[in-house]
Amino acid sequence: MPIKRSVLRARIENAGEVIGSLWPLRTFNAANPLAGFEDQPFDQAVDRARKLFGGRPYPRPATFRQAWENGEINPALLTRRLEAHGITDPPAALLGRMAADDPPGDTSPADEPLDRLMTKWLAAFLDQGQADWPMPNREEGFYAAWRSVAPYDHDGPPVDSPSDLPPTLLDAFENVLTAYPEGQWESIFVQHLAALPGWVGFIKWRAQQDDHPWQAAYPISLADYLAVRLTLAKRMDRAIAPDDAEELPANGTTRPRLPALWLRAWEESYRRRLLDDLSAAADASGADEDDERPAAQMVFCIDVRSEVLRRHLEATGPYQTFGYAGFFGVPMQHERYDGVRVKSCPPIVNPRHRIAERPAPDRETQAATYDGWRRWGEAGRSLVKTLKHNVAAAFGFVEGSGGVFGAALAARTLLPSALFRATDVADARVPGPDHFCAPTVDRVPEADAEGPLPVGLSPEAKVTYAEAAFRLMGWTDTFAPVVVFTGHGCQTPNNPYKASLDCGACAGNPGGPNARVLAAICNDPDVREALRERGIDIPDDTTFVAGQHNTTTDEVTLFVDPDEVEGASDTIRRLQADLETAQAETAAERVEHFRADRPDAPVDEVQRRAADWAETRPEWGLAGNAAFIVAPRRLTRDLNLNGRCFLHAYDWRTDADGTALENIMTGPMVVGEWINTQYYFSTVDNAAYGSGSKVTQNVEGKVGVVQGNGGDLMSGLPLQSLRTDDVHVQHRPLRLLTLIQAPMGRVDAILERQNTLAQLLDNEWMALAVMDPEQDNTILRYRPGGEWTPDAAESAAPASAAG
Amino acid sequence: MSDDTTYEPTEHTLHPLKKIEIIVRGEKEEFVRELLDDSGVSGYTIHRDLAGRGEHGFHEGRLLFNDRAGLVMFFAVAEEEVIQGIVDGLTPLFEKSSGVMFVSDTQVVRLDKFLGEEDEAGETA
Question: Could you give phi then psi for residue B103, rounded to 5 degrees?
Answer without folding.
Answer: -120, 135
